[in-house]
Structures are given as structure tokens and as C-alpha cells.
Specification:
The complex is a heterodimer. In chain A, about 0% of the residues lie in helices and about 60% in strands. By secondary structure, chain A is an all-beta fold. Classes of the chains: A mainly beta, B mainly beta. The interface of A and B includes residues 35, 50, 92 and 99 of A.
């Protein structure tokens, strides 16, 4: 079973700061997912990546397959970025995801 | 836009009641999933289904069953609700993923179930 560890668990930042959330996993995967969950529960997929780097607006996700590590970066953070960010490892044999516990991000104005 | 809907946002049931949570997706996805989310434990897979009438146990299937009679609909059943099943329940769907291809999961809004 793939274990997924996220750090930090909680993160507080000032508006405009550069933010990094880290994710490590223990075995081989077919893809690594980053998800965002706002208060109220809704979860949206931010990125799905199996190598390299992806960028969407102010969000950047990177993955290092050899080190079994991924990072989510937020540039020029804004209070609306406040949410729980979850990484999830997709098993090589199919569609199941194993989730990290999530990182609660709070960006203060 | 993909839409995954769940039958209720909030539900309060009594211990011992039979509870049905329903999930419907409109994207013709093969896979559907039921998760529960608890503080400090993250999202945990209860059951998933990769086709009509097909199901596989997830990490915490005890006390739950599922039904998938139509491709777009996946039901989670609590045969006899207990207080330790008080949780947020999230449904998701995706296309079938393999080693060669991966697909993101689309989540419903969640059902916050309280069992008293």
C-alpha cells in the first residue's frame, strides 16, 4: 500500500508570499494528483502529473520520480488561496488514489 | 463541465437506521468511488466500482455496502448506522486509468452525515 506524507500540516502566510507544500510517497505510482478543498467540502483537481512540472496561473506543481517527491508552489499568494491542499498518489495498477492528510493553508491579508 | 451530484448535503439519522447515499455523474465515467473524510485521517476509500454491477472493497468497507445498477449512479448503503459512521462522505468519478493513462477524479459536494 502506498503511503503518502504531506508537510506541513498547517501553514499560515501573509498575502504575497511564496508558498511550498511538500508530498512524499513510498512506492511506484502512475501519477501524482494535487487537489484543493475549500471550506464547505468541495474538492477540485488542480494538477495530475507523472513527470516534470506543470503550471496553471500562480500554481506550479513539480515531481521528482527518483526521489518520490512532489511539491506544490503558489506564487504571490492571496487570501482566496486559503484552503486545504491534498496530494494523492495513483497506483500503477489502476485508478485508486491514496491520499495525504492535507495541508491547511491560511493566507492573511 | 463534469458534474457529480450527491443526494443530500446534510443528513441526520438515528443509530440502527438504514441509510442510502446516492451519487450521480453525467460524464459517462467508468469509475465511481465513495470516500469518507475525517479530521486527522484524510480521505479514505470505502468502495469503488469500475463498471455496472462491479465493485471492489476499499480500505474501510466494514459496515458499508454499495450498489451500481446504472453506469451514472453509485449508491452507498449503511445497513445499520452507528455513531462511528458520523463523517463527511464524498463521491467521485473518473475514466478508467491504466499504467499508460491517468485521469483526474471529479468530486461531488459531499454529504455530512450525523448519526445520533
Amino acid at each position: 500500500k502506498n503511503e503518502v506524507e504531506q508537510s506541513p500540516q498547517n501553514l499560515t502566510a501573509q498575502e504575497g508570499e511564496f508558498i511550498t507544500i511538500n508530498c512524499s510517497y513510498s512506492v511506484g505510482i502512475s501519477a501524482l494528483h494535487w487537489l484543493q478543498q475549500h471550506p464547505g467540502g468541495g474538492i477540485v483537481s488542480l494538477f495530475m502529473l507523472s513527470s516534470g512540472k506543470k503550471k496553471h496561473g500562480r500554481l506550479i506543481a513539480t515531481i521528482n520520480i527518483q526521489e518520490k517527491h512532489s511539491s506544490l508552489h503558489i506564487t504571490a499568494s492571496h487570501p482566496r488561496d486559503s484552503a486545504v491542499y491534498i496530494c494523492a498518489a495513483q497506483e500503477t495498477s489502476g485508478s485508486r488514489l491514496t491520499f495525504g492528510e492535507g495541508t491547511q493553508l491560511t493566507v492573511n491579508p | 463541465d463534469v458534474k457529480v451530484t450527491q443526494s443530500s448535503r446534510y443528513l441526520v439519522k438515528r443509530t440502527g437506521e438504514k441509510v442510502f447515499l446516492e451519487c450521480v455523474q453525467d460524464m459517462d465515467h467508468e469509475n465511481m468511488f465513495w470516500y469518507r473524510q475525517d479530521p486527522g485521517l484524510g480521505l479514505r476509500l470505502i468502495y469503488f466500482s469500475y463498471d455496472v454491477k462491479m465493485k471492489e472493497k476499499g480500505d474501510i468497507p466494514e459496515g458499508y455496502s454499495v450498489s451500481r445498477e446504472k453506469k451514472e449512479r453509485f449508491s452507498l448503503i449503511l445497513e445499520s448506522a452507528s455513531t462511528n459512521q458520523t463523517s463527511m462522505y464524498l463521491c467521485a468519478s473518473s475514466y478508467w486509468g491504466t499504467r499508460q493513462s491517468s485521469y483526474e477524479q471529479y468530486f461531488g459536494p459531499g454529504t455530512r452525515l450525523t448519526v445520533t
